[in-house]
Design goal:
By secondary structure, the protein is of the alpha/beta class. The protein is 51% helix and 15% strand. The radius of gyration is 17 Å and the shape is globular. The two termini are 19 Å apart.
Length: 251
């Protein structure tokens, strides 16, 4: 089975990291691990000042967690370990010494919304709607909640998570999840290239220091996100949740 891939390209102090998976750029555990390792390496790379995080293709940005792997979870330990994959990624993003710019070309669900929220700056198209549907399958967006709340506030996170509905790119822009939105991918990429090149001309030390300032008061995530992973790991074992996941996987 294709477990997806992570590729990186470094040019003029800008590292472009691309994740890809045939199922709408979903994240099996192995792909999460690869992305964490890539970000950790780039954090220590003196030839890099800025990281652009993007997904492959011109449709969905990210479909969140792998449903097949969710279905395969049999124990609390396995569940906690699976959801810790997103905890590991969010912590890698916040601890990375380089600012991370998100490039969001299309719709995003679940864990992918957390990834967007953990970016330091974001460019998106008007097609880039977002949705948190975890409650509808009997779990919740517990691991990614701190990242999303930090970016858009508790009230808007509550709206997004409790409604379970799609929210437009305009909504995401107004609430602060996106920094800029554009009518299409070419327009977005032109603006992104210009911004990244401008930022890459700045002092590496100043950028690193700015990154630390942006993430002040999140040190407790080192433990919080894994406690949240255990919550999801427990709920995913419920028979009702398993049945919902099976029904979805058959569609």
């Amino acid at each position: 089975m294709n477990q997806g891939s992570i590729t990186k390209n470094i040019d003029n102090f800008i590292a472009t990291v691309t994740f890809e998976h045939p199922l709408s750029n979903a994240f099996p555990a192995s792909l999460l691990q690869k992305l964490v390792a890539t970000l950790n390496d780039l954090s220590q790379d003196d030839t890099v000042k800025i990281i652009i995080l993007k997904s492959a293709g011109n449709r969905a940005f990210c479909a969140g967690a792998s449903f097949d792997e969710l279905l395969a979870i049999k124990t609390q330990e396995e569940g906690t370990r699976f959801f810790s994959g997103f905890a590991n990624l969010l912590n890698a993003m916040r601890l990375c010494s380089k600012p991370i710019i998100g490039r969001i070309q299309g719709k995003t669900v679940g864990g992918g919304v957390g990834i967007i929220a953990a970016c330091d700056y974001s460019f998106a198209t008007v097609q880039a709607s977002v949705k948190l549907s975890e409650l509808s399958i009997g779990i919740g967006p517990f691991v990614i909640a701190p990242a999303i709340e930090r970016k858009i506030g508790t009230a808007h996170f509550s709206e997004l998570s409790l409604s379970g509905a799609w929210h437009t790119s305009d909504w995401a822009l107004v609430k602060g999840l996106y920094t800029h939105t554009f009518k299409d991918i070419p327009e977005m990429d032109t603006a992104l290239k210009s911004f990244a090149q401008k930022l890459a001309n700045q002092s590496a030390e100043a950028l690193c220091t700015m990154k630390k300032v942006l993430w002040e008061n999140t040190e407790h995530w080192d433990t919080l996100l894994y406690k949240r992973a255990a919550m999801s790991g427990k709920l995913v074992l419920r028979e009702s949740t398993k049945q919902i996941l099976k029904n979805i996987s058959k569609k």
